[in-house]
Design a protein that fits this description.
Length: about 270
């Protein structure tokens, strides 16, 4: 398995899971496009598109860092055009950019509702729409979206219905595109971690939450890498979990992914 010379477009890839996926693929010598808003240091969160670009080059990949707001279709189209101009095409799209606000209906300002719907649902659709004409020309094209399985248990709607709606919208997009582009051989899948992942964005929500009970982003990156190496025509329309994918690839011990060895892990939402 190798992604050498494959071009991978990642939204929101300046930190966290997106960064981990980028570095995993870079080790193969892939072309990585990091398309995110953070081109200058964030006051609370580490990492920019330029710092991760340096890490990608050091890891063995080739990087094009692009400042892009995925909510703006003109910026998305321009970023896709710049990618194709530099690397000649696109093989893989990773919809990683996401917004989260875990509040109830009466505690959710419409500005936060709009942010989640635009970053999660709208941006996913817009980026897929702009990328698909190029993916259909690729040898083994994949779209992978970081979104959950469609679990209709009311408990996942009760306390944060707006967030749930926005994340399920991303998953529904994958389900629809998988069927729409099945005959074109474009794999469209969702991937979700079984446990909470220790990302800077998650810690920014509540700095007091200990990360000892979480896993490293690398478990999601390793699962994504495994999916990218599967034949696209035989691997579409799935709601994968990271553990499921890695088990299918023969991994039985997940202890190396734990932030603290032996600590009880926090289950993720929607499972």
């Amino acid at each position: 398995m190798s992604l050498r010379n494959k071009t991978i477009f990642i939204t929101g890839g300046s930190r966290g899971i997106g960064r981990a996926i980028a570095l995993k693929c870079a080790a193969d010598g892939a072309n990585i496009v990091v398309a995110a808003k953070t081109d200058t240091p964030h006051p609370k969160l580490p990492g920019t598109i330029h710092t991760v670009a340096q890490e990608i080059e050091t890891a063995g990949g080739h990087c094009l860092p692009l400042k892009m707001d995925a909510r703006d279709e003109d910026q998305v189209q321009a970023a896709i055009a710049a990618t194709v101009e530099k690397f000649g095409g696109i093989d893989i799209l990773v919809n990683n950019a996401s917004a989260i606000n875990l509040t109830g209906t009466l505690q959710t300002p419409m500005s936060r509702f709009d942010l989640m719907m635009s970053v999660n649902m709208r941006a996913t659709f817009a980026t897929c729409q702009a990328t698909l004409p190029h993916l259909m020309k690729a040898e083994n094209p994949h779209i992978l979206t970081l979104s959950p399985p469609l679990n209709m248990d009311p408990k996942w709607f009760k306390n944060h219905v707006a967030y749930t709606m926005s994340k399920y919208g991303m998953s529904m997009c994958m389900l629809g595109l998988a069927e729409e582009f099945r005959d074109h051989g474009v794999a469209c899948n969702a991937l979700w971690p079984v446990t909470v992942i220790a990302t800077d964005a998650f810690k920014a929500i509540d700095p007091n939450i200990p990360t000892d009970n979480m896993r490293k982003p690398e478990i999601v990156a390793d699962a994504a890498y495994a999916i990218f190496n599967r034949p696209s025509r035989d691997c579409t329309g799935n709601f994968f979990t990271d553990e499921q994918v890695l088990k299918e690839n023969g991994v039985t011990d997940f202890s190396s992914y734990a932030m603290k060895d032996g600590a009880k892990l926090i289950p993720d939402f929607f499972l």
